Amino acid sequence: MKMSKLSNQTNSQDPQAVNSRIFVGNLNTFQCSKTDVERMFQIYGRLAGISMHKGYAFVQFTNPFDARNACLGEDGKTILSQTLGK
C-alpha cells in the first residue's frame, strides 16, 4: 500500500479544519511512525496531515464527519501495547 506525502501542519484555526482534526493520546511514538498512524486512520477518510509529538499525535482529515468516525472507531484500541485515547 502506497502512503501519500502528508503535511506536518495540523494547527489551522479555520473552523472547518478544527472540526476535522483529532487528538490521538497515549501513543507510543518511540515505536509508532507517521506511516503507522496514516495506515491506522486512512480507512476513515482522506487525510490532510499528521503531526507527531512525544506520546501523542494530531490527525487532520479533510472532512469533519471522517474525523468523528475515526474517533469513534479508534478510541480505546490497543496499538503497540498502548491503549489509545482521545
TrEMBL record:
One Gene Ontology MF term: RNA binding
A single GO cellular-component term on record: nucleus
Keyword Electron transport applies: no
Keyword Zinc-finger: no
Keywords assigned by UniProt, alphabetized: RNA-binding
Domain RRM, chain residue ranges per copy: 20-86
SMART domains registered for this protein in UniProt: RRM
Entry-linked InterPro entries: Nucleotide-bd_a/b_plait_sf, RBD_domain_sf, RRM_dom, RRM_HNRPC/RALY_subfam
PROSITE patterns for the chain: RRM
Pfam families: RRM_1
PANTHER family the record matches: HETEROGENEOUS NUCLEAR RIBONUCLEOPROTEIN (PTHR13968), RRM DOMAIN-CONTAINING PROTEIN (PTHR13968:SF26)
Full protein name: RNA-binding protein Raly-like
